[in-house]
Amino acid sequence: MKKSAIIITIISVVAVLICLKASLYVVDVRLQAVITQFGKPVRVVTEPGLYVKSQIF
Question: Is 16 among the domain residues?
C-alpha cells in the first residue's frame, strides 16, 4: 500500500471511533437520564445500561 492510503485509512478509522464514542451513553444503576431534543425533554431512561443516541449530522 502507498503511504497516503495508509494515512487515509488511519484517519478514517479514528473518525469512525470518535463518532461511535460520541453516540454511546451509559445510565448508572443509581441514576436516570433525561433525553432532550432542542432543549425540550423527549423521554426519561430509568433502566441501567448502555444506550445509543442518534446523531444528526
Answer: no
